[in-house]
Design brief:
This protein is of the alpha+beta class. It has four helices and seven strands, in the order βααβαββαβββ. The protein has one domain: Ubiquitin-like (UB roll) (Roll).
Length: 127
């Protein structure tokens, strides 16, 4: 699967929102560096965090086991599946929040905002 990614710090710095329809278009046109915006390819049965790391990126994480939410991302387009979820609320799931350390791509194309640990509601979940 092809994953287009964007750093949430860029979203907040520029006054953008996760719900902007043209979020990734704006990112593509902004001349961002390769850590903040780009794409990675995810092999089957590989989680998003691992794929990003294999491509040389440093995305936040702690437990790697779906228990801390440090690795949370917002899936803006496409779909991933998590084998389990014990910490994200229904409301967060509805907003597209997923744990990158246990999320496997379902669709061929994804748009993902990583580094969302300071998104309201997530701060208190981080251990
Ligand atoms: Fe802890 Fe993913 S690193 S939930």
């Amino acid at each position: 699967a092809r994953v287009e990614f964007l750093d949430y710090d860029v979203v907040t710095e520029r006054g953008w929102s996760l719900t902007d329809d043209d979020l990734f278009e704006k990112a593509a046109e902004s001349g961002l560096d390769g850590d903040a915006y780009g794409e990675v390819f995810v092999e089957p049965r590989t989680n998003l965090l691992k794929a990003a790391e294999d491509a040389g990126h440093s995305w936040p994480f702690a437990c790697r086991g779906g228990a801390c939410a440090n690795c949370a991302v917002a899936v803006v387009a496409g779909e991933v599946k998590m084998p389990s979820n014990h910490i994200l609320s229904e409301e967060m799931l509805d907003q597209g929040v997923r744990l990158s350390c246990i999320s496997l791509p379902v669709t061929d194309d994804l748009q993902v905002v990583y580094n969302i640990e300071h998104l309201p509601g997530l701060d208190e979940l981080r251990l």
